[in-house]
């Protein structure tokens, strides 16, 4: 059974096209070319703006030309995450989706249902010959996962519609009317490496097997942060074995993904090797005991490795204190939307290169002023440790409007079409609505989508029956909005 056998077939065929086309952030050009090819036979106007977004216009169904214009929006890029041992190259290899009961998953990598299902739905609408709708525009943005430069660079006055349907949320039977804003925080340390000591034995300590996940949607889940855990292990080893030296401490891959793996390279006299290995095994058992309900596949291992230059002891001390002190997780839950995270921070990455160490975080909040306050809390930790600190690449949240006419219409329509009263929700993730709304303040906006689990991790899966319901509701929404009240 292939994706094209699933319902609705046009949507799944377009999703297969997306899976076949590499599309990590900032590498969407090939996908845009293939989309143009797929749409060539249809009477559509296709524009690529100055930052690379695709805008695709479709005339109204005859007789519905005076209906309000609808903009359907999703992003083209996907988060590139893969399992340990995978040789997948996201710059050139296709995603390998497969059907697992009611779920669609990928072999060893992220699936890209975030936001590929939304893109596929838009392309299906634009190529449909029997749907009822008013004037339509598809807005396919670039670089959403790595900085939202596509949404930020979209100029006002380009789009003609007055209603925005964002198709980038991940829970069936929910309508979203707000989202978190975010900001990147970085700390950069400089150091002079010390020469490698070939009289010592070198080992690589690896923390793997964590679930990771979306740094907004999963930040409240209590999942392990690989950087925090390796830092704890390293601290325990340094205290027990004063002769142990550190060559590196790195981990994490993306600012918007909870770190799944982290690594340290250490050196010590060879006669300490057996005792160090025993302590690493003890620490693995300790971490498993602490996180057994959420991280049953956690692995802390030690293995021989090549010699390397050493970090100065004072640099290791500063870096360890930063990782210990840097907040990770929920700052505060929303008082207005029970069960929703209001403000959080993700300790995302530690990277080393040529005498520099960088620590990267992403803070989010439903309230822009609290987003900035969280960023200053993190930046303060970096500054106290003497790091060169940066706070930037911020984007606004999308303030909820409970009096939205579009919300009222679609709430009633959802109950009629799907048979379920939808939950009205905000999301602790960075939808592009807040950014887009700054240049299009007249838009009435709403977001919805199918059920997706494990976004931003290789566990990502989309619930196929929910995709069918999502499509049914999208089709009904466009018909409903085309008809006068």
From TrEMBL:
Its EC number is 3.4.13.18. Keywords: Cobalt, Dipeptidase, Hydrolase, Metal-binding, Metalloprotease, Protease, Zinc. Its cofactor is Co(2+); Zn(2+). GO terms for cellular component: cytosol. Pfam families: M20_dimer (PF07687), Peptidase_M20 (PF01546). It comes from Hahella chejuensis (strain KCTC 2396). Residues 205-292 form the Peptidase M20 dimerisation domain. This is Cytosol non-specific dipeptidase. Belongs to the peptidase M20C family. GO terms for biological process: proteolysis. It catalyses: Hydrolysis of dipeptides, preferentially hydrophobic dipeptides including prolyl amino acids. GO terms for molecular function: metal ion binding; metallodipeptidase activity. It comes from the Bacteria. NCBIfam families: aa-his-dipept. CDD domains: M20_pepD (cd03890). SUPFAM superfamilies: Zn-dependent exopeptidases.
């Amino acid at each position: 059974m292939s994706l094209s056998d699933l319902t609705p077939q046009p949507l799944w065929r377009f999703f297969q096209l997306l899976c076949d086309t590499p599309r990590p952030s900032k590498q969407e050009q090939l996908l845009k070319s293939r989309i143009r090819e797929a749409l060539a036979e249809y009477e559509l106007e296709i524009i690529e703006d100055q930052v690379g977004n695709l805008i695709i216009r479709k005339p109204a169904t005859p007789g519905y030309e005076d209906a309000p214009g609808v903009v359907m929006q999703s992003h083209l890029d996907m988060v590139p995450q893969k399992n340990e041992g995978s040789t997948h190259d996201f710059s050139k290899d296709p995603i390998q989706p497969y059907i697992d009961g009611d779920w669609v998953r990928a072999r060893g990598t992220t699936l890209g249902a975030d936001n590929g299902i939304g893109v596929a739905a838009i392309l299906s609408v634009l190529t449909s010959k029997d749907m009822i709708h008013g004037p339509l525009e598809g807005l396919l943005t670039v670089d959403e996962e790595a900085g939202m430069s596509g949404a930020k660079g979209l100029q006002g006055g380009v789009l003609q519609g007055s209603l925005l349907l964002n198709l980038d949320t991940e829970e069936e039977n929910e309508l979203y009317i707000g989202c978190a804003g975010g900001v990147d925080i970085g700390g950069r340390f400089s150091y002079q490496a010390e020469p490698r000591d070939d009289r010592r034995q070198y080992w690589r300590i690896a923390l793997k097997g964590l679930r990771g996940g979306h740094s907004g949607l999963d930040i409240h889940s209590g999942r392990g942060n690989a950087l925090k855990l390796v830092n704890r292990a390293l601290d325990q080893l340094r205290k027990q074995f004063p002769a142990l030296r550190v060559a590196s401490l790195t981990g994490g891959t993306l600012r918007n993904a909870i770190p799944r793996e982290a690594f340290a390279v250490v050196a010590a006299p060879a006669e300490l090797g057996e005792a160090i290995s025993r302590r690493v095994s003890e620490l693995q058992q300790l971490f498993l005991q602490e996180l057994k309900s959420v991280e049953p596949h956690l692995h802390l291992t030690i293995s021989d490795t090549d010699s390397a230059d050493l970090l100065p002891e004072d640099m290791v001390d500063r870096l360890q204190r930063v990782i210990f002190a840097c907040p990770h997780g929920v700052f505060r839950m929303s008082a207005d939307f029970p069960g929703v995270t209001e403000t959080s921070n993700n300790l995302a990455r530690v990277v080393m290169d040529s005498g520099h160490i960088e620590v990267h975080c992403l803070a989010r909040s439903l309230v822009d002023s609290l987003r900035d306050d969280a960023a200053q809390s993190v930046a303060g930790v970096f500054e106290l440790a003497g790091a060169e600190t940066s706070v930037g690449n911020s984007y606004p949240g999308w303030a909820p409007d409970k009096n939205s006419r579009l919300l009222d219409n679609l709430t009633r329509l959802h109950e009629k079409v799907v048979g379920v009263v939808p939950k009205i929700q905000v999301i602790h993730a960075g939808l592009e609505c807040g950014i887009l709304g700054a240049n299009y303040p007249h838009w009435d906006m709403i977001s919805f989508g199918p059920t997706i689990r494990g976004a931003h991790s290789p566990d990502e899966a989309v619930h196929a029956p929910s995709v069918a319901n999502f499509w049914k509701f999208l089709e009904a929404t466009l018909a409903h909005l085309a008809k006068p009240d």
